[in-house]
Design brief:
CATH topology of one domain: D-Maltodextrin-Binding Protein, domain 2
Largest sheet: 7 strands, mixed
Structural class: alpha/beta
Helix content: 40-55%
Order of helices and strands: HHHEEHEHEHEEEHEHEEEH
CATH architecture of one domain: 3-Layer(aba) Sandwich
Number of helices: 9
Oligomer: single chain
Number of strands: 11
CATH class of one domain: Alpha Beta
Strand content: 15-25%
CATH superfamily of one domain: Periplasmic binding protein-like II
Low-confidence stretches: 302-307
Distance between the termini: 47 Å
Radius of gyration: 20 Å
């Protein structure tokens, strides 16, 4: 299989859009479309569903993506090993990012600053939070950004951490929902509602259980009728009235037009978007990146308060 096509596939899966992926890859959009068509033909199955605005992964595409990313990461590691043996190794930072937080200005500005001012090559790998934890522990990535609900990560002595942003948990529901006219909802309002959630094996175990436990303590047993592998699919299902969902407050920046968010007045759960790194494997580049992230948080804080 052509590794170049795998890279093209991963870029489209991350951006959810052929046009944005073509700009990132510096390849003409028709050529990119043709390459993905060739990849789908060689596999004998569709990887993407074409939408009016962008694309989303098919169920097979969602299964295929983490395996493709693992292959690409292994190839990058081999290339790095060869460069190191030849004495030509460039400084590289491998960062795991869950796709829904990639637009956070602290993350994007910090990555750009590291690349341009510190002459560091970036390898940005879309990973679920649970995948990030395992990749950090085995050294496959240098840093990751994950949501910490109940100090699951801060309690792990293997990780250094820095909180980038704190978000509330909000309810995502379709605009046509019976609760859409309410400014806020309560847990009792949600009795009997079906829920769409990120698959349990993709979410940090302690945090997932803590969130469902907090709902249960407030009298609501979450009825998970559909699990998904990505936030994009989650919002597509919510928009089509498959169920409601619980999401981080930052989701208001990229939700589709037919989904709305409402606070849950009696659910007092906050998420901390956290930069993580493995203390035992920390490189100079990872330390530099952590300092840049901290400075960006201080610099952008007044803007966040004003917005």
């Amino acid at each position: 299989m052509d590794l170049r096509k795998l890279r093209y596939f991963a870029a489209i899966a991350e951006t959810h859009n052929f046009r944005r992926a073509s700009a990132r890859l510096h390849i003409a959009q028709p050529a990119l479309t043709r390459q993905i068509g060739d990849l789908e033909a060689s596999l004998g199955i569709r990887l993407f569903e074409r939408l009016p605005r962008g694309v989303r992964l098919t169920p097979f595409g969602e299964t295929f993506l983490p395996k493709a990313k693992r292959i690409l990461n292994d190839i990058d590691n081999l290339h790095e090993l060869a460069q190191k043996a030849s004495g030509k190794l460039n400084r590289v930072l491998k960062v795991g990012v869950e796709d829904s937080v990639m637009q956070n200005p602290v993350i994007t500005k910090s990555l750009c600053m590291l690349k341009h001012e510190c002459n560091v090559s970036l390898s940005i790998i879309p990973l679920s939070e649970k995948e990030q934890l395992s990749w950090l522990l085995d050294g496959s990535i240098d840093a990751g950004f994950a949501y910490d609900i109940c100090s699951e990560f801060s309690g792990n002595s293997d990780f250094g951490r820095f909180v980038v942003q704190t978000d509330r948990i909000l309810l995502a529901l379709p605009k046509a929902h019976r609760l859409s006219s309410k400014a806020s909802v309560t847990l009792s309002d949600l009795q009997g509602e079906p829920f769409v959630m990120i698959a349990r094996d993709k979410a940090p175990t302690v945090g997932y259980d803590y969130l469902l436990g907090a709902c249960r303590a407030g009298g609501l047993i979450i009825n998970v009728t559909q699990e998904v592998l990505s936030m994009e699919t989650l919002f597509a299902f919510v928009a089509n009235s498959v169920g409601c969902s619980l999401v981080a407050e930052h989701a208001r920046e990229y939700i589709p037009n037919d989904v709305i968010l409402r606070p849950i007045s009696d659910l007092k759960v906050e998420l901390e978007l956290t930069l993580l790194w493995n203390l035992a494997l920390t490189s100079d580049v990872a330390n530099t990146f952590a300092q840049i992230v901290k400075k960006q948080c201080i610099r952008l804080a007044p803007l966040a308060l004003a917005s």
